[in-house]
Design goal:
Helix content is about 5%, strand content about 20%. It has about 300 residues and is mainly β. Among the domains are: about 45 residues, no CATH class; about 100 residues, no CATH class. The strands form 3 sheets. It has a 5-stranded parallel sheet with strand order 1-4-7-10-13, with no helix packed on it. Strands 2-5-8-11-14 form a 5-stranded parallel sheet, with no helix packed on it. It has a 5-stranded parallel sheet with strand order 3-6-9-12-15, with no helix packed on it. It is rod-shaped and about 100 Å long.
Length: about 300
């Protein structure tokens, strides 16, 4: 807790309570950067040598509390980038709170929804309190098989929600979810004699914030029946696979933290495989979990 600002009476005891030291206390113990008082911008009024007075310690602190509250939906939130102007390396206690009803998402599957990089000083502490939803982007659905030679394409892997690269405490009172994998595209249909060939349906997009795109239907030429594209994923659910003649449908996209389904195979013509689920966290060995809440997807 910082020493009060001007207008409040402070004493040697006030300074010693904040910074410690050896009894009997002397102001000469408390030069900035001398071992007890951190040499940080917030303590700039405290001299590093020479004349020193009790009044130099107004507002000085041994630790800096930095509350970061997310009260609107956010994307690709980097805690270090948002640490703010009061941050002092090595003495800062950063607490990120995601309010109820707030979503932290991602604008692309390769990008994390929330990340705590290693850039913080080892003396800092980082705590995340999630009361909302932290969810990665869903994987895209695979393209349906083209006539006459294209198999269904695989769905894409869902994105990863949280990245941690230094010791962090996460109290999860809400949901943290990896993106759903995209559904695989359906195979094209050749058919027996007298049956009209058809393209394969596109795979559905995986669940996410944002949801994965639906896969395109296979291309057609004259005399070949067209199929439908897959539906995009939404925040809670994967999109449906695109329907196709003769049942060569695309696979459905995976829900939160779930793999996508494979597209329908037609004999030797394979449907695309479903994309794997994204991780709810990457860097779990760095994390302490006082409350685990709902966690969906893989962990790394």
């Amino acid at each position: 807790m910082a020493i009060p600002g001007p207008g409040t009476a402070i004493s040697m005891t006030t300074i010693a309570t904040e910074f410690g030291g050896t009894v009997p206390h002397s102001l000469s113990e408390y030069y900035r950067g001398g071992g007890l008082v951190p040499n940080s911008p917030i303590n700039a009024a405290v001299p590093t040598s020479g004349q020193i007075a009790i009044g130099d310690f107004y507002g000085a602190t041994n630790r800096v509390a930095i509350p970061l509250t997310l009260s609107t939906n956010s994307f690709n939130y980097d805690v270090y980038t948002n640490r703010g102007p009061t941050y002092s390396a090595g003495i800062s206690d950063i607490t990120v709170t995601v309010n109820p009803g707030i979503t932290v998402g991602s604008t692309s599957a390769p990008t994390y929804s929330l990340l705590v990089p290693s850039a913080f000083n080892p003396g800092d502490t980082v705590t995340i309190i999630n009361n909302g939803l932290i969810q990665a982007m869903g994987g895209a659905g695979g393209r349906g098989g083209n006539y006459p030679a294209g198999p269904g394409s695989p769905g894409s892997v869902g994105g990863n929600a949280v990245y941690i690269n230094r010791p962090t405490t996460i109290t999860n009172n809400g949901t943290i979810a990896g993106g759903g994998g995209g559904g695989g595209g359906g195979a094209h249909f050749v058919g027996a004699k007298g049956q009209q060939p058809a393209a394969g349906g596109g795979g559905g997009g995986g669940a996410g914030t944002n949801g994965g795109a639906g896969g395109a239907a296979g291309s057609v030429v004259p005399g070949v029946q067209s199929a439908s594209a897959g539906s995009p994923g939404t925040s809670p659910a994967g999109g449906g696979g695109g329907p196709a003649p003769r049942g060569n449908n695309g696979g459905a996209g995976g829900g939160r933290g779930a793999a996508g389904s494979a597209g329908v195979t037609d004999g030797p013509r394979p449907g695309g495989s479903g994309g794997g689920a994204g991780n709810y966290i990457v860097g779990n060995p760095f994390v302490t979990w006082p409350a685990t809440g709902t966690r969906q997807g893989g962990v790394a």
